Amino acid sequence: MNTNKKILELIPSRISIRTYDPKPISQIHLNQMTVFLDELNKQAQSKIRFSILSTQMDGKETNIKLGSYGVLSGTHTYLVSVLHEKEGNALELGYLFEKAILKATDLGLGTCWLGGTFKREDFEKNTQLNDHEYIPIVSSLGYIKDKRSLIESAMRFGVGANNRKAWDTLFFLNDDKHPLSKIDAGDYEKVLEMVRVGPSASNKQPWRIVKQDKFFHFYCARNPGYGDMMKYDLQMNDIGIAKCHFELSATELGLNGSWIITDHPSLGVWEYVLSWEII
Ligand SMILES: Cc1cc2nc3c(=O)[nH]c(=O)nc-3n(C[C@H](O)[C@H](O)[C@H](O)COP(=O)(O)O)c2cc1C
Q1: For a pocket test of ligand 1, which of 91, 96, 203, 241 has the largest count of ligand atoms closer than 8 A to its C-beta?
Q2: Which of 34, 140, 204, 266 would be a feasible disulfide site paired with 75, CB 3.0-4.6 Å?
Q3: pLDDT number for residue 264
Q4: What pLDDT score was predicted for residue 265?
Q5: Is 167 exposed, middle or buried (0-12, 13-18, 19+ CB in 10 A)?
Q6: Is the model's pLDDT at 273 over the cut of 90?
Q7: What does the pLDDT read at residue 10?
Q8: What three-state secondary structure class fits 270?
Q9: pLDDT tens digits for 195-215?
Q10: Is any ligand 1 atom within 6 A of the Cβ of residue 115?
């Protein structure tokens, strides 16, 4: 993935933005994002596609309404994901959408993943959907306003958005009992740190990674009941974000490996998802 800034700088610099400067997004930035989304659409292996939706046309407001339950202010433009309910894959959606988020970050644009606080029916009404397709996730896109709204400050406080789980509760050696030391992580210390600081739905951080020989095995530690009311698997989406950060950081550091799915049992309540094999 081509970015101006280093991935290892972009990932920690991204935070969710909910207060925007309402000025239109420049045509250059819109074009760059559109080209990037087209590339992601070609990469997608399951039935996923991305597009941009705006309440503005040529910098002027139209009569399109895209609601966010008052959580966002000043926003008019969104990255939109469309998923096939049977043939689309939440792990892949999370992986690809996070690339779009990092691309926007690289362009100096603010984003906020939205899986809950957006009016899905507004977005679905204004997007051409085929049978069995729906919109599970969108992200706001726009220029960042200096001062946060009160609602944004309250939301960040509510989910502890500035906090992340400690390293030794996320990364393990050989099993789910022994925390991985940074020494044992070796060259992969920075890669794992990039996973740790990533965004996740309600900041639940369900990723757990076990290093074993030449593998990093990825697990999903689900929060019981979380997202049960939704048809989209938000926590598997979060593992996709972890996969994106891991792969992009490893690639930037010249650490070679590839993804495989091995025949792995769950570890207690952790659900096995996939593994990175060091080459
Ligand atoms: C899959 C996903 C869904 C999210 N849905 C929402 C949402 O509906 N509303 C919202 O305000 N933030 C949402 N967030 C943002 C998270 O709350 C945020 O990423 C987390 O608190 C960490 O904060 P940060 O992004 O500023 O680092 C979502 C994030 C992810 C990854």
Answers
A1: 203
A2: 140
A3: 83
A4: 82
A5: middle
A6: yes
A7: 98
A8: strand
A9: 999 999 999 999 999 999 999
A10: yes
For 259, the token pair is 């993804």
Q: Decide whether any atom of ligand 1 lies within 6 Å of the 151 Cβ.
A: no
Query: 54 is written with which tokens?
Result: 């705006």
Protein fold of 167-278: NADH Oxidase (3.40.109)
Query: With contact defined as beta carbons under 8 Å apart, do 109 and 256 qualify?
Result: no
Per-residue pLDDT tens over the stretch 64-111: 999 999 999 999 999 999 999 999 999 999 999 999 999 999 999 999
Question: What residue spans define the domains of the chain?
Answer: 7-155, 167-278
The pLDDT assigned to 227 comes to 87
CATH superfamily, domain 7-155, is: NADH Oxidase (3.40.109.10)
Q: What is the pLDDT of residue 229?
A: 87
Give the nearest ligand 1 atom to 241 CA. 31
Q: Which residue has the tokens 């094999």?
A: 277
The span from the CA of 260 to the CA of 241, in Å, is: 17
CB 105 near ligand 1, within 6 Å = no
Mutate to test the pocket of ligand 1, among 13, 16, 99, 119 (most ligand atoms within 8 A of CB): 16
Model's pTM, two decimal places? 0.97
Strands 171-173 and 207-212: parallel
Residue 228 Cα, ligand 1 centroid: separation in angstroms?
17
d(CA 215, CA 266): 16
d(CA 273, CA 229): 22
Same fold for the pair 7-155 and 167-278: yes
Top pLDDT among 222 and 59 is at 222
Between the CA of 71 and the centroid of ligand 1 the distance, in Å, is 11
